[in-house]
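Lab meeting notes turned into a lecture example. A postdoc, R.K., suggested we walk through two folding results consecutively so the class can see how the record format repeats. The first protein's sequence and structure tokens come next.
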Amino acid sequence: MHIALARFPAVPAEQDADFRAWFAWSNDELRDTAGLRARRLLQAPDGSYTALVEHESADTFAAMHTAGPVDRIHERLGRILTDAPMATKYDVVVDYPTAARCCGGGDGASSHEDAPQARVSGGCCRS
């Protein structure tokens, strides 16, 4: 799995509702993007925003940025914010499943084939 954390510049208070609406709209625009697993908007106690984007791989993440909706998404964001978000990218090397994920929600296996298999202590995923 590949993760990107995109920290947004400060959102002016009068643009906050528009920014949140933009994020929801952009999720709809990207809904059918190959390899996109999840896209979440996070807000820190100081009011700043970060997007958490989960992809199957670095390749699917890169391909998303060449897709048609991305230009429209960035153009519309430019009407709300003056600066672009700054992204940091990560490859997941160990994925620790919780009981909720492995109990009825999958087999609990790591998404990285070489990563050690994690187990939830006392849960249904124990061996």
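The second example is placed directly after the first for contrast:
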Amino acid sequence: MPTAIHPVCFALGSITRKPGIKNNTTTARDYIKITILFDHDVVDGAPAARFTSRLVDLIESGYGL
């Protein structure tokens, strides 16, 4: 298991094109593989889950682009 000195670490993987549903239509969509590692000595599980959920929402909406 990777270790780090930071309470949160991200590992970004490849982007793949797979079928996905958008507006009740199946289309090809891009998916990115992201691994998030939390130091549970610093970050509790519930805030980590809320952070991850919010991050997914922001990425899917294209926030900031």
